[in-house]
Amino acid sequence: MKKKPKWLAPVAFLLLVVITVFVVSQQSKTFTAEGFLDYVSSVSPWALACAVVCMLGYILCEGLALLVICRALGYGRGLQRGLIYSAADIYFSSITPSATGGQPASALFMIGDGIPAAVTTVVLLLNLVFYTLSIFAVMLIGLVFYPGAFGLFSTPAHMMMVAGIVFQAILIVGLLLLIFSQKIFLRIVDLFLHLGQKLHLVKSAEKRREKLLEMETDYRASAGVVHQHIPAMLAALGLNVLQRVFIVLVPAVLYAGSGHPLGEMGKIFAIQSWVLMGSSAMPMPGAVGVADYLFLDGYGTLMPDPVNMELLSRTISFYSCVLICAVVLLVAFARKRHQGSEAG
Length: 344
Hints:
Radius of gyration: 21 Å
Distance between the termini: 33 Å
Number of domains: 1
Number of helices: 14
Oligomer: single chain
Low-confidence stretches: none
């Protein structure tokens, strides 16, 4: 099979940005480019600065979480490398279908830094567990701030958010079984593979099972790391939760910076936590559209026209974040090429 051109994913991402902005802007009958710029200029500078800091904190926290796990396994690396691992995950997760490219991209950089492939697998697997748990943690924090946030959404939005809860719950149970109880996990896998074959939904079931068995050593190693380095694992989990808190805070500070009472930031945080949960069930690029829909649906109960705020929040928390990660990776590739030419 021919390899896809390297430029295809970034171009597809840019096309997605254009389509998303167009679709969102069409949700408002009064939206104009001039109106959007007027809205941006009306937002308090401190709120814009805080939103950007939160976005940068989102990138930083993932890098720190990966470094904490690496250090627990005996492979300490500097902050600069952690930022590159984080940038690779965020950038490639954003431009590849179903977010399939994020972890493999991080793995390539980690292996290139001398971290063994088996250790890299363990690090990324554990961080995936913490990532999933952090989504539930942020949702629970939102419930504390404003328990009634769920009721602000429409019925279709409720269905998406319930799907997100179910999807994330299945994922976390599967990951925990994969790490701590491989036998139970394999029995469940066998049951679903057998059912999938009967329904002609799964091909090469035996090969899929063998692939999981080949990785069993890595899963056992993950369990060992958790048991031996509980403080480090709790720190990595805390950093994942903080990462999610940072990104959820972006619309909250923009809302407060638009002239709304600071006391309502908790309500905004709760609404955004449900937006995060609802969009988590969808792979890219569908997750972007779902997040936009949920945002407009939930915030529409608080303001007559949330489109301007949605576009500004999305620009800072997603588009700018992906752009910064791309720049970080370009610098990393340029330095590597320069060092290679000097060595040659």
